[in-house]
Amino acid sequence: MIDVDISLTVSDRTRRFDLSARFSTEAGFAALYGPSGSGKSLTLQAIAGLLQPTKGFIRIGGTTLFDSESGIDLAPPARRIGYLFQNYALFPHLSVEDNVGFGLTSWRQGLSTEGRERVQALLARFGLDHLARSRPATLSGGQQQRVALARALACEPDILLLDEPFAALNPLLRGELREELAQVQRQWDIPVLMITHDIEDVLHLAQVTFVYEHGQIVREIDMLNGTEQAHVREQLGVPATAEESDPLRRTLRRLLQFGRQA
Ligand SMILES: Nc1ncnc2c1ncn2[C@@H]1O[C@H](COP(=O)(O)OP(=O)(O)OP(=O)(O)O)[C@@H](O)[C@H]1O
User: Fold this and answer.
1) Which residues line ligand 1 (CB under 6 A)?
2) Which of 69, 180, 207, 209 sits between 20 and 30 A of 159, alpha carbons compared?
3) What's residue 10's pLDDT?
4) Domains and CATH numbers, the chain
């Protein structure tokens, strides 16, 4: 269960931005969708504890991470959050395995035996074993994304926050990695909150989508109840595809879906 109701303001000398975001969901995969600069990343940063709201609350799976009324404000490491940043933010001077194990490493004792085993298991899970000693700059976009995902999962988080996980990838790779992400979500049974600008991410992965405009959530689209893809596109202001507009093809697709479920 993700339950968020926050207000915050960020400003510098010339600009000021007010965010007021409120949403609640039990969906395993939720998307934050909206134009650039509408407040999606600020929402993730507040959930991760990197930015403090002026008021409101943030609850994940029954744990309160922040509550202005009761003065609760857990430090980022105590929030048990896996964060995949835009462009991954891998440490360029560390190897793949050191990047994955970074959050488990103590400065004094290094990586424990358990930590080392966890890193090895993650490297194997994401097909990165042969790249363990390589630096991020020598990896492809898809490999970098896997390293970032493995690093986000290493601390066994209660939730994964993904800031445009596929934006840096070429379109062909996106489909493959979407499927991988869906598998990760099922395998770890972990709720995922993902920012995206891509309608295909929404259609393939999200069970619910919160639509942002000017620092507020203006719409919620629930995809769990068999919502038509054309309807989702319409709600998001994206034109329907030829297939979705054709009643005969739509009926055939529904029959096929029905056949698969039966
Ligand atoms: N420290 C700051 N001072 C002033 N304005 C800021 C500050 N940080 C962010 N903003 C502004 O707040 C707005 C919302 O930023 P945010 O990063 O949440 O947008 P976003 O919806 O994630 O956009 P994108 O999809 O392009 O990443 C933007 O206009 C941004 O320029």
Assistant:
1) 10-12, 15, 17, 36-42
2) 69
3) 96
4) 1-80+191-241 (3.40.50.300)
Report the side by side order of strands in the sheet with 216-222.
Answer: 72-73, 63-67, 55-60, 2-11, 16-25, 216-222, 208-213, 29-33, 192-196, 159-163, 81-84
ipTM score:
0.96
Quote the ligand 1 centre to 37 CA distance (angstroms).
5
- Closest residue by Cα to atom 11, ligand 1, is 17
Which atom of ligand 1 is nearest the CA belonging to 215?
Answer: 14
Structure token digits, residue 254: 């529904």
Ligand 1 atom nearest residue 43's Cα: 18
Residue 15 CA: which ligand 1 atom is closest?
4
Centroid of ligand 1 to alpha carbon of 40 (angstroms): 8
pTM here is 0.87
Range in 51-65, 146-160, 210-224, 243-257 with the lowest mean pLDDT: 243-257
Cα(17) to ligand 1 centroid in Å equals 7
Tokens of 158: 């209660």
pLDDT digits (tens, 9 = 90+) for 58-98: 999 999 999 999 999 999 999 999 999 988 999 999 999 99
Given a cut of 90, is residue 248 above it in pLDDT? Answer: no
